[in-house]
## 1
Amino acid sequence: MGAPDPTASPDEFVTESQANRHSLLSEFWQWLKHNKKWWLLPILIALALLGAVVILGGSALGPFIYPLL
C-alpha cells in the first residue's frame, strides 16, 4: 500500500476502508512467500520457543520444564 492518491474519489476511500483486513500472521506469511525469506522461519521459531521457556519458567510450571532441558 503506497501513499494515498490525492485525486481518489470518496467512493474509492469507502471501498478501501470496507475491504477485508488480514491478520498480522497472515500478512507476515504472505511477505515471506513474496520475498522468499524462508531463512527467517527457524530464527522466529527459536525465539518463540525461548520466549515460551522464559515465560513459563517464571511461573508455577518452571520446575516441570527445566528437568526436560
Note: The chain has a mean pLDDT of 80.
## 2
Amino acid sequence: MFISFEGVDGSGKSTQAGLLASALREAGFEVIETREPGGTPLGEQVRTMLLHGADMTPWAEAALFAASRAQHVEAVIRPALERGAWVVCDRYVDSSVVYQGVVRGLGAEAVYDLNRVVTRELMPQQTFVLDLDAATSRARQDGELDRIEREDDSFRARVVAAYRDLASRDPERVVVLDASLPVAELAERIRERVLAG
C-alpha cells in the first residue's frame, strides 16, 4: 500500500509518517519510508535547490518538484510497491497541486496534469492531511526556516484552505485529521485506520 502525508509546514507530517512506518514494521511489513522532495540522490540535490536556493518562478518550482518526483517514483516507490512493500511518503503530488497549483496560482489541474505524466499516474491509496491553522503552524517552527517556510501567514492560510478543498474533492482517498491532537493519539488513529483498511 502507498500512503502519503500532507499538510502545512509544522503540522507534524514527518513525525506521523515515521510513527506509522514504525508501527507497520512492528506488524511485520516491509516499509519504505521516504520524503519529497528527496528520496533519491537526485531528489535530495533538487530538495536543496528548492528549499535553500535562489528565488524562482512558480513554474520553475513546479518543474523541479516534478523532476524530483519522476526520479523518486521510478527508482524507489514503484519498485517497492511491485515487490509488495508498503511505502510511506512525507508529501507527494498533492503538495504540488496545493502549493504551486492553487497557492502560487498555476492552476490545480495544470500542475496535476504535469505530475500525472511524470508519475505515470501513480497516486497513493490513502492520503492523510494533517490540518493545522496558520498561526499554530508558524508557532511550531523554530530554527532556520527554508525558502517556503519563510512565507507569511496569509500564504499558510491559503495552503490550509487548499488542502481542505482537496480533501472535499477526493474523500475516499484523502482523510483530514486534526493536527492539534496529542502526537500519540493522532498516531493511533492513523494506525488503526491503515490496518483496518
Note: Helices lie at 13-26, 41-52, 58-82, 93-103, 108-118, 134-140, 153-169, 183-196.
